[in-house]
Protein: NADPH-dependent FMN reductase-like domain-containing protein
Amino acid sequence: MKIIAVNGSPRKGGNTDLLLDEVLGIIKRNQIETETI
Structure:
């Protein structure tokens, strides 16, 4: 399984970016491949 996260926020390091990083970190620990666009 592969999960793609789409971050539409223009602010790198903003709240949306931090939230996506946290969620994807949890998903990666479960051996699921992720990619952020």
